[in-house]
Amino acid sequence: MKKSNSQFPDDKEIKIMGSKFQKLPIGFLVELGSANYEQMNPKHYRESGKLIYLFDDLGQMKDKPFLEYPDQIKDVEGSLRAIDYLNLTSNRKSLYFTFAHAQKIIKYDAFEFRKNF
Q1: Given a cut of 50, is residue 95 above it in pLDDT?
Q2: Which of 21, 68, 69, 86 sits a CA distance of 20 to 30 A from 43?
Q3: Pairs from 83-86 (Cβ < 8 Å, separation ≥ 24)
Q4: Which residue segment(s) compose the domain that 98 sits in?
Q5: Quick check: 69 pLDDT over 70?
Q6: What total number of domains does the chain contain?
């Protein structure tokens, strides 16, 4: 699938099913996945690398991507259900990500994207 937005890295695209998206005061968080593998393919999760990107209101990438899939998802041998692996929420100061398979919540500063916990 070709992307019309040249701001995406060549090996990334917005996931068709279950992609996470969040509007923040400083832009938009978007989950990008591997453009090389379909979502049901375990390699999609193993080889996606960083998956959360920040874009401004004009669609320009603003910051380096962050957050990778946990090993519990990367190590799956069979196909994965493309929903419910990642949840995202935020408040004015923090971003919260949780991978149900990893059984933990990851908190980031909503303005500097440095990991707090």
Answers
A1: yes
A2: 21
A3: 83/17, 83/18, 84/18, 85/18, 86/18, 86/20, 86/31
A4: 12-109
A5: yes
A6: 1
